[in-house]
């Protein structure tokens, strides 16, 4: 049977064999991707997030996606460090979480990432906040965009600089503050909230600076993933799109959050 097949193939022209081989390789590649997706979506066992450490840091934790993360992580038994600008909102969110999950320990950090005070300050503030705590999870969620669509040359200097400070510098500096502890413990997970504006869409006109900062977050995540996987630290970038609420799915709480995203690396 095998020799009959081989003989038949040997009678075929070279160009046909070449094209058939390319088609077969392409089929194998697509099938592998599909099987991987089926495994990741339906079969992969749940992770116990506490294996990364008992504390989670969430920036921009008083609204939207950050707030949803805070509730879900408290439900999973993690203690929280919530970072945001408004102390009253931080108090309210903490009370809500404590009412639902009374055993949760919560620390709050009030910081305005867009403040003109050197953004280096947030690094120091966060280093202090995480000192002595077993922080296993960092959710770099804080992010802002334009109040309304604008052509690039019309964007107000303050809006521009605020976006760069919050989305780009804030994310980098909080990561820089939290990483050394993770490296020491040889475990941790960093989830950066990107945006479909920089990846799903081929371009995102009229929100150019926002989209560009999110492309930074995407590439930052990819590079950190490669740099730190040897320390047992996982990094992923979730590319969300137009969601107001982002609930974590029960099975793949970090890799698949229920909102649209592209996972750079799977935790
Ligand atoms: N929602 C979407 O449709 C969507 C789509 C794509 C990507 N994203 C990304 O997802 C992330 C969260 O978006 P979201 O819509 O959930 O946000 P949101 O509802 O607007 O909430 C923003 C959070 O960030 C905090 N924050 C804003 N400016 C801050 C500053 N200067 N300093 C400190 N904290 C600040 C707010 O705290 P205060 O209340 O204290 O101000 C609030 O907790 C962002 O990175 C965003 O770019 C969202």
Return Rg in Å: 22 Å
- Please give the count of helices: 7
Low-pLDDT runs of 5+ residues are: 244-267
What is the number of strand segments? 6
Counting structural domains, the number is 2
Outline = globular
Q: Might you state the CATH topology name of the largest domain?
A: Rossmann fold
Helix amount: 40-55%
**Distance separating the two termini:** 45 Å
Order of helices and strands: HHEHEHEHEHEHE
GO molecular function, one term: oxidoreductase activity
Pfam family, one: adh_short
Transmembrane segments: 15-40
InterPro entries: NAD(P)-bd_dom_sf, SDR_fam, VLCFA-Steroid_DH
Task: Describe the protein.
With 267 residues, the protein is of the alpha/beta class. The chain folds into 2 domains: 41 residues; 193 residues, 3-Layer(aba) Sandwich (Rossmann fold). Helices cover 47% and strands 13% of the residues. A 6-stranded parallel β-sheet has the order 3-2-1-4-5-6, sandwiched between helices. Helix 5 packs parallel to helix 6. The protein binds NADP nicotinamide-adenine-dinucleotide phosphate (NAP). NADP nicotinamide-adenine-dinucleotide phosphate binds next to helix 3. The site of NADP nicotinamide-adenine-dinucleotide phosphate has 27 residues, from helix 3. Pfam families: adh_short (PF00106). Keywords: Membrane, NADP, Oxidoreductase, Transmembrane, Transmembrane helix. Belongs to the short-chain dehydrogenases/reductases (SDR) family. InterPro entries: NAD(P)-bd_dom_sf (IPR036291), SDR_fam (IPR002347), VLCFA-Steroid_DH (IPR051019).
């Amino acid at each position: 049977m095998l020799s009959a097949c081989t003989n038949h193939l040997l009678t075929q022209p070279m160009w046909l064999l070449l094209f058939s081989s390319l088609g077969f390789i392409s089929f194998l590649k697509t099938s592998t991707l599909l099987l991987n997706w089926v495994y990741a979506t339906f079969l992969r066992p749940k992770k116990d997030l506490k294996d990364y450490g008992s504390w989670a840091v969430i920036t921009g934790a008083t609204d939207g996606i950050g707030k949803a993360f805070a509730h879900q992580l408290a439900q999973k038994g993690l203690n929280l460090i919530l970072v945001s600008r408004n102390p009253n909102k931080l108090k309210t969110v903490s009370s809500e979480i404590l009412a639902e999950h009374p055993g949760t320990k919560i620390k709050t950090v009030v910081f305005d990432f867009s403040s003109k005070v050197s953004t280096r300050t947030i690094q120091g503030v966060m280093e202090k906040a995480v000192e002595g705590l077993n922080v296993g999870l960092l959710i770099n969620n804080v992010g802002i965009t334009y109040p309304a669509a604008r052509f690039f040359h019309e964007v107000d200097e303050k809006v521009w600089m605020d976006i760069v400070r919050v989305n780009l510098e804030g994310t980098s500096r909080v990561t820089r503050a939290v990483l050394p502890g993770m490296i020491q413990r040889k475990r941790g997970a960093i989830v950066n909230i990107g945006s479909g504006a920089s990846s799903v869409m081929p371009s995102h006109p009229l929100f150019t600076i926002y989209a560009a900062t999110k492309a930074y977050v995407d590439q930052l995540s990819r590079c950190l993933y490669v740099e730190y996987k040897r320390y047992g630290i996982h990094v992923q970038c979730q590319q969300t799109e137009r969601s107001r609420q982002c609930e974590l799915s029960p099975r793949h709480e970090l890799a698949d959050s229920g909102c649209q995203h592209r996972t750079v690396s799977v935790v």
